[in-house]
Amino acid sequence: MKKHLVILGGGESGVGAALLARQQGYDVFLCDEGTLKPIYRAELEAAGIPFQDGGADEARVLAADEVVKSPGIPEKNELVKKIRAKGIPVISEIELAFRYKGDSTIIAITGSNGKSTTTALIYHICRTADLDCALVGNIGYSFAKQVAEEPKPLYVLEISSFQLDDVVTFRPDVALLINITEDHLDRYDYKFENYIRSKFRIAMNQTADDYFIYNADDEVILGHLDHIHNPVKKLAMSMKQKAEPGAYIQNDELNVNVPGAEQQQMSVYDFALKGKHNQYNTMAACVAGATMDIRKNKIREAVQTFQSLEHRMEPVATVRGVEFINDSKATNVNSTWYALESMTKPTVLILGGIDKGNDYTLIEELVAEKVKAIVCMGTDNSKIVAAFQGKATVVETGSAAAAVQAAYAQAAPGDAVLLSPACASFDLFKNYEDRGLQFKEAVKNL
């Protein structure tokens, strides 16, 4: 008898899960309370997978043997509550993909900030070393779909706390935890401890054969290392002390020392990625490369040739002496802190969107030091206005075009305009990519 699998959510991860489940012989049904994108609808129809959008057939869902829940659906969703009450097992797409990945190796990266950059850099290192690998997970392409359509011997996987919440047996060969700062607290009952516990799930099934790479300068991570009870090989990274085994930066020199791998030294001035936070990201990627026995000359080459991601401190254009930078991926205050920390010019900062319980005092000092004006871009800017009124010039706008115009008006030649919103984008935009693209379009139209 076929196992009846219901998939909640028809985005990238949900459709990927449906395709893999159908391939593996499950009886699959997908439902989404919203409207499916035409591309996903076409994929499901081509595979002959029954689906429903604009709602959910509750009886059919509650008859499932197992449910794959997309990461964007919170536990407080009424249908999820009913599934839990009935005791139906709930897993994530990551867990489903893991079941069928065969003997492939997984490098999995999580953290509150910088995980996309670190993931992309590790993938670039692996590709530079001619490893046959795929870049999957939270960074864009569904892990499950990759396993179904083009399996690889190595997966470089960005994984969010929401994806980790519903893993059971998932076990990466190399796990990276690059930092933990307050984020998504609206999904964790406003308890930081719950979010921390979720991040540490990345290592919960690791064994003595596996590596756990962590930031030893992050007090939250250090204070919770006892969450890991299993005998995994721990590799620390630090800028404050010699971290061995692992990596550390002293006197602008990166030192990588992973047992069994080539030792490596490299000047931080060779890093393509600039800014202190990116030194952590680069250090993490170099350690991951060393665990894969990648030659140090290949790691160096990759670190020097890496190009930063779209929507992450992405230079857009310089218009009459004013530089515009797109950091739309900064969806929390800590991300914006990192962006401001790397700025060297007087900055007009564009903030705003859906607030996830933000504490703007975190960036007060950097705003005082580097920001000449704040432009709000959202439907409700009251919290930002209250936080910075009297401390900086604050201008309110309600669209990307208006925000760019207002920021340009506040800037002088030699200044920079930084879109680093510290908020989710769903009030005015489809997602952070849409926000970044509208920003870039508005800059072109100046």
Please explain how this structure is put together.
The protein has 446 residues and is of the alpha/beta class. The protein has 3 domains: 4-91, NAD(P)-binding Rossmann-like Domain (Rossmann fold), CATH 3.40.50; 102-305, Mur-like, catalytic domain (UDP-N-acetylmuramoyl-L-alanine:D-glutamate ligase, 3-Layer(aba) Sandwich); 314-444, Mur ligase, C-terminal domain (Protein-Tyrosine Phosphatase, Chain A), CATH 3.90.190. The protein is 34% helix and 22% strand. The chain is built from 17 helices and 20 strands. Helix 1 runs parallel beside helix 5, helix 6 (115-128) packs across helix 11 and helix 6 crosses helix 12 (296-305). The chain is globular.
Could you list some keywords that capture this structure?
3 domains, six-stranded mixed beta sheet, alpha/beta, Rossmann fold, Protein-Tyrosine Phosphatase, Chain A, single chain, 446 residues
